[in-house]
Amino acid sequence: MGFPRGPVEECNGKLNAVGDALYVIGGKWKLRIIIALSEGHRRFNEIQRAIKGISAKMLSNELKDLEINGFVKRTVHTGTPVVVEYEPTDYTHTLGDVLSSLADWGTMHREKLRREG
């Protein structure tokens, strides 16, 4: 039987949980890549065109990280030419509420800035 958690332990638990989440999906590009893949499989160049400003090297690194963490599946179709496709995994769909909340908050924030500016 555990002891009741106090405010400090609860805060530390939330900080650790958010830290874990940001470690996996944080940064400028990862969620954008996941959104770009939300309609299904895409080739590397299609993803790069969909995300303005990302370099090929950065996209490659971020796709590897997303694959390691179970968000992206990479499929190589051998042939001439070799085609590499990326698609979201079922695990990616666990981010649905997070992405919806971020999109809602981003829209609200943009409107706030327009009203104030």
TrEMBL record:
One of its GO terms (molecular function) is DNA binding. PROSITE patterns: HTH_HXLR. Keywords: DNA-binding, Transcription, Transcription regulation. The keyword Chaperone does not apply. Pfam families: HxlR. The keyword Transcription applies. It comes from the Bacteria. Gene3D superfamilies: Winged helix-like DNA-binding domain superfamily/Winged helix DNA-binding domain. PANTHER family: TRANSCRIPTIONAL REGULATOR, TRANSCRIPTIONAL REGULATOR, MARR FAMILY. This is HxlR family transcriptional regulator.
